[in-house]
Amino acid sequence: MVSKTPTKFSKSTPKSTRSRRKKPSPLKSLIATPSAVAASIDRSFRSCRRRLIKIFTCFGILGTPKSRKHGFRRLKTVPHDDPAPPAAPTPLPPPSFPGRKTVILDLDETLVHAKTDPPPERYDFTVQPVIDGQILTFYVLKRPGVDELLKEAAKAFEVVVFTAGLREYATLVLDHLDPGGEIISHRLYRDSCKEMEGKFVKDLSVMGRDLDRVVIVDDNPNAYACQPENAVPVAPFINDPGDRELQKVMKFLEVAPLFDDTRDAILHHLSDNGIQKSQI
């Protein structure tokens, strides 16, 4: 008996039973071939670059004004408007007495001498400013003639005290020298100084006063480095009870109103005291 059961599959297989060829996984292909990775990344970059160029080209076209006779015009570069630096503030308000000249007096070593602990043998008063969160005690000695100088100067001049000292300290000292606030018209402190090469300079040109009507009395030549011709120099005061520097200043203040230009009065004063202009 012959068996009818086929021993081999037929060569023609139905479509439903045909096995489909599997496509290789892109990820596996990239892993298998490193060069393909680089090529794929390069294509991505180039495609992205082309798209960006198209986008920015559109922006350029939109931003270019239409012209009847010409084609596209190059967009103008808009300059950055940097804000101008603020003008330096005028330290002094308009003078209360327009007809008067202005005398600017230094404080430390010109009108007074002050030191911290230990206390000296001689001092006139103490002040205790708070500086950097710490209470400090200053022992202040007035220069001989300071009270007379301030009173006489206030009769004919606009009196300004301009110190390179800290406001916290100097304010308390000036309150002792002028308790009623009737002598000193204005007070200027370190924050009104100009710092040049690590030194505090008192620039008279920004004070709102004509330089031919201003005189500064100071023991430190660095302070009046910008306008030495406006300075009446004095020797530094420490603790000499026989000091006579302020008496010389009072003599100058007596003759200064006779000169149209205060600088001429200063030259006259210096020559009378044997001081050459080059020595200032």
UniProtKB/TrEMBL annotation:
Annotated region described as Disordered, given as residue ranges: 1-29, 76-97
Name of protein: CTD small phosphatase-like protein
PANTHER family, per database record: DULLARD PROTEIN PHOSPHATASE (PTHR12210)
Organism for this UniProt entry: Cocos nucifera (Coconut palm)
InterPro entries from the UniProt entry: Dullard_phosphatase (IPR011948), FCP1_dom (IPR004274), HAD-like_sf (IPR036412), HAD_sf (IPR023214), TIM50 (IPR050365)
Biased composition (Low complexity): 1-16
Record domain FCP1 homology: where: 96-256
Entry's Gene Ontology molecular function annotations: phosphatase activity
Biased composition (Pro residues): 84-97
